[in-house]
Design a protein that fits this description.
Elements lengths: L1 H23 L10 H9 L10 H5 L2 H16 L8 H4 L2 H21 L3 H16 L10 H24 L5
């Protein structure tokens, strides 16, 4: 049992390091996010119906980018990362961190030219946040909408440009 816990935390530390490097590649610096904080954040109490699991996140570099950025943002706001941070913090704080993390995730995906991922996440953001999130504070809605518009425009411009480029001879 102890070996399994050690192995899991070792894997989490490795994934955090990779996410920090990815975030650094787009100019975002993460201070310190420990494996314990990450684990507690991912397995803690939530007020939404998010069904994303720890394994889902560990298996996807973009979701790792998102969660590490979100934890970093909460820490920058003075929040202690534990299993209750989401339910014990004001919703505006949680959504502020979440929206910043979403921006960083999408910036990173654009940086990697993974336009399919950006489109998937924009669709999820539209359906689960903009259209159907009773917890989204009204004062956060304009920012959530602006993020959607900004990245939709960015991905459309980039994919349209590729369609019209002439092959190099």
């Amino acid at each position: 049992m102890i070996f399994l816990v050690w192995f899991m935390f070792s894997e989490i530390e490795s994934k955090i390091k990779a996410a920090k490097n990815g975030l650094r590649s787009i100019g975002y610096v993460v201070k310190e996010v420990s494996a314990r904080e990450f684990y507690n954040f991912m397995t803690g109490e939530i007020f939404s119906e998010d069904t994303t699991t720890l394994d889902d996140v560990l298996g996807n570099e973009y979701l790792m980018i998102h969660e590490v950025a979100e934890i970093n943002e909460l820490k920058k706001m003075g929040r202690t990362i534990n299993k209750r941070v989401i339910v014990d913090s004001p919703k505006t704080v949680i959504y502020d961190a979440h929206l910043t993390a979403l921006e960083k995730e999408l910036e990173y995906a654009l940086h990697k030219k993974d336009y399919a991922w950006v489109k998937i996440r924009l669709r999820q953001h539209k359906e689960s946040v903009l259209e159907d999130d009773p917890n989204l504070p009204e004062e956060m809605r304009p920012r959530a909408e602006a993020i959607f518009e900004k990245f939709l425009k960015a991905v459309q411009q980039r994919t349209r440009k590729r369609l019209y480029e002439r092959p190099k001879s």
